[in-house]
Amino acid sequence: xxxxxxxxxxxxxxxxxxxxxxxxxxxxxxxxxxxxxxxxxxxxxxxxxxxxxxxxxxxxxxxxxxxxxxxxxxxxxxxxxxxxxxxxxxxxxxxxxxxxxxxxxxxxxxxxxxxxxxxxxxxxxxxxxxxxxxxxxxxxxxxxxxxxxxxxxxxxxxxxxxxxxxxxxxxxxxxxxxxxxxxxxxxxxxxxxxxxxxxxxxxxxxxxxxxxxxxxxxxxxxxxxxxxxxxxxxxxxxxxxxxxxxxxxxxxxxxxxxxxxxxxxxxxxxxxxxxxxxxxxxxxxxxxxxxxxxxxxxxxxxxxxxxxxxxxxxxxxxxxxxxxxxxxxxxxxxxxxxxxxxxxxxxxxxxxxxxxx
Length: 357
Hints:
By secondary structure, the protein is an alpha/beta fold. Helix content is about 40%, strand content about 15%. The chain folds into two domains: about 5-225, Spore Coat Polysaccharide Biosynthesis Protein SpsA, Chain A; about 230-280, no CATH class. It contains twelve helices and eleven strands.
């Protein structure tokens, strides 16, 4: 771990709106970080439930917690409020329903300090968790580092707002998160827009492990596919204007994003979303044909391989359990099982952090 004398203060910013059901678990995962030189800013975004009182109560036991309050203005404004009030050299945002592995901040700080002058952004992979903290999927474990601007245009592999560690000065230079997307009815890609702005000038460092538990619930923003796609289009429009040579990559990314949401809506039998997305899919007839042909070829190839293996009596390969040294999250297991001994209960507040300033 970084020595105390050289340890920078890191500001954790938690935007919270009507989050009383999940905020305690989020705060616990932050309090239990192995790197403890933190200030923890909970920004209550005009909640109408017990979010504010819960955060205040938690702060009485962990004095690193500071609770801010604003009228409801959306997650971007809440994050920006926290960034302005922060005193840390780096900002680590986490949404009030997501959770962290205990070593997330420590490993990210080690990674970012390997960059020139420690100036850049660190990220990691994530596990997708449900309402109960049970894993049902994970991010594709990409290995992008350094200049990641073009790969990030093609795919938002960071994937959520609870993962990066970012220098506060650069966030302020970029203007923070774009609250105007919400005002235009296109909330959802504020994270991606900020990451792209940072990636134009800063190197990114990767911690190759699944350190973020990113919670998917029926009511969260990513479930509103049409709004997310509108947000993505607004974010990409000025980038296409600045980098016309990257238009093809951006259009492919837009098609892939639209196609993913369309398939998700079909799988969820969300026919309201299907109806909204169908006209957007119709904009890509050529890509749909090519994509369909590739999918058919993959299915034929997969089927042929299975037949050949049965004829040759070859055993099926074991599912992969590790990638780049990291344990791959297993569906059906709790995210907390990745770092807690069996049978250990989650304590609301770690005795290790009680009394910290």
